[in-house]
Amino acid sequence: MPEAVVKKSSYKKLFSNTVIFAVGSFSSKVLILLLVKVYTSYLSREELGVNDVISQIANWLQPIVTMTISEAVIRFGLDKAYDKKKVFTLGNMVCLGGFAVLGIVLPIVAISGVADKYLSGYSMLLYVYVVMSGLKLVYSTFVRALEKVKLFAFNGILTTFLTLIGTIVFIIGFKMGNTGYLLSIIVSDGLSVVFLTFSAKLWRYLDFRRPDKELLSTMLKYSVPLIPAQVLWLITNSSDSFMTTHYLGSASNGVLSAAYKIPNLVATVYFMFGQAWNMSAIMEDDSDDRNDFYTNVFEFNQCLLFIIAGFCLLIVRPLTGIWLGPEFQDSAYYSPLLIFSSVFSCFVTFLGSIYLTSKRTMRSLATSLVSGIINIVLNIILIPRIGLYGPALSTVASYFTVFIIRAYDSRKIVPFDLKIKKLALNIGLLALMVIINHEDLGIGRNMRSLLLPALFVVIVLLNYQKPWEAMSKMLPRRLVKILKRLGILRILFLMGVLAGIIVLGRMTMGWLFYFIGALVLAQGVLLGKKGLSYPALALLFVSVWAEMSLGAAAFTAAVASLVMLAAFRSRRELLAAVIMTDICVGLHFGASLLVFVICFETVFILVLMHERIAAGIGRLLGIQPRKKRRRKKKSSRKKHTTAHR
User: Would you say residue 177 lies in a domain?
Assistant: First the structure.
């Protein structure tokens, strides 16, 4: 009985944490999807390429500067044998020491001019970028170690929302280009650190007076081998950008960066699951049913990844046309290979968690070294010969090779079942979808439109059972009953109908979506149903943005919000109308007028709320408002008369 309870609670905790991370990540990732349209519309190929290189340099510096201490913070912070206060204090000390060293080295590099081709005069911003991102990583990781997963998820939403505001202000409003891009991330990371500090009261876990030297040595022995492992892993991920810039220029690297946007959707879904999985893997390391736990979780993981990757391969071409700017349409040629590689990247990350939980980080280093060597060698050979297909093929080869090595090696530590036959069949089906998407094979558009959906249906039928079992436990019961009545074939048919509507909407230049959105909005307003009006507002905003511009989308949403305000007359509609109007003002008349309008709105709101403000100040000073006194007197009289009666 206790074993069954423990086993059930392990899965329940994993799935509940996954849902929390998914809710937090989903909202933030939706905002990131909107940002992609901004970046590809307001930044040139060269600017996007430079931004990508600077971001990659920051990603390389972060594990070196922080000594990957965040991995030790989550590993030892979740372990009940260690004091959380000492763990967090040592994590901060290591980070501060690394930031001091970087503050000495980076100016020397900037003055010498060695890296001018890559830094492009952004060395100071790069330093602040690394500091803020390093602190945010350690603080958010420690919040996970405290098992405050809801706060961690909310922080993800908040950070991305702040990035969106920063992007609108710095890139669209002040037109600061690359500097605006970096500032939006720096400001959001800095505010995230402040938010986590005050929300989780992290100052209570800081004590620099007596650092535990023995624990520091233990944590560094764990984290230091991960420095070259993470750097090599980043080399595998980012050497494509540097070598593409070196051989083909920043414009080509901008196209490659855009080509990664759709494959990142696959990695995003795993990221939601992977955060919860790392916590469960650490806490279940000593359990009796560990092997079965790993087997079931990996099978669920691979089923979900294959379905998502297949869906991305199905829609990669129309989604590129809608989502990315006109200068980046060529990225659709390279995205299918990168989608294929992202599946193996997620598998490799899953298997790497075995090394982390068992504290065998040297094996992670060795396998990462293999990946880095393969990627760099193939990039040197392929990029000068076949252009942007070179980095895509080298990424597939490096991830696939490391997956094979880790699948063999990690199972010596935890001998779980990989379900190899099912794995091989799914890999073969995905490979066929990649080949069909290839432009140079001469497969016609009509044939592609038939073959890709057919292969996707086969992938869904092979893999839907495990994700469905997990989702049925988390979804509302009414929805589960409806889905069971429909059955998998009807659901696939409805998905096909939805895909057809999307394709038809694209062929009609968005007018089908405008008509549907306006029709549903009118129905919601006439029937007095907000549940219809807000989805219609979202559909109009997204479709107009995809086909026209952000300004046109904001104007359309502002008009729709005013219609809803006239019908419903509530604060929510008033707030939506004000926000959309402000976006229109900022886009069409500049940031200075936007600031003036916001100040005017603030003063107007304060005037309207002067009675409430006065009441609030009175409460602080201990002065009771007159109205409340009268009410109390009336109520006391009523009580007196009723008692007398």
Answer: yes
Angstrom distance (rounded) from CA 70 to CA 35: 27
- 567 closest CA partner among 605, 520, 527: 527
Average pLDDT score over residue span 305-315: 87
Write the CB contacts of 236 (distance below 8 Å, at least 6 apart in sequence): 368, 371, 372, 375, 395, 398, 399
Q: Which of 338, 316, 373 is nearest to 257 (CA)?
A: 338
Q: Choose the weakest-confidence range: 31-35, 63-67, 373-377, 398-402.
A: 31-35
Coil, helix or strand for 316?
Answer: helix
Name the residue type at position 370. Answer: V
CA distance 418 to 424: 10
User: Is the same domain home to 538 and 499?
Assistant: no
Is pLDDT above 50 for 194? yes
Residue 103 CA to residue 131 CA, distance in Å, equals 10
Tabulate helix, strand, coil % of the chain (nearest 5).
85, 0, 15
Structure tokens at 305: 């990844």
Mean pLDDT for all residues in the chain? 75
- Judging by beta carbons within 10 Å of its beta carbon (0-12, 13-18, 19+), is residue 236 exposed, middle or buried? buried
Cα(176)–Cα(308) distance, rounded to whole angstroms? Answer: 36
**Domain limits for position 495:** 475-507
Tokens of 498: 């939805």
Contacts of 594 (CB under 8 A, 6+ apart): 173, 582, 585, 586
One domain, residues 597 and 545: yes
Q: Extract the tokens encoding 45.
A: 């190929």
Q: Within a domain: residue 569?
A: yes
Domain count, the chain: 3
Residue 238 CA, distance from chain mean position:
18
Instruction: Answer for the pair 423, 411: CB distance below 8 angstroms, yes or no.
Output: no
d(C-alpha 392, C-alpha 339), whole Å: 9
Are the C-beta atoms of 145 and 74 separated by less than 8 Å? yes
pTM: predicted TM-score of the whole model, two decimal places: 0.61
> What are the Cα distances from residue 220, in Å, to 10, 208, 552?
29, 17, 53
Whether the pLDDT of residue 617 is over 60: the answer is: no
- Residue 325 forms part of a structural domain: no
Residue whose tokens read 């079931």: 296
Per-residue model confidence (pLDDT) at position 569:
72
CB 227, CB 63: distance < 8 Å: yes
Residue 146 phi/psi, 5° resolution?
A: -80, 0
Residue 569 makes CB contacts below 8 A (sequence gap 6+) with none
The tokens for 517 are: 């959105």
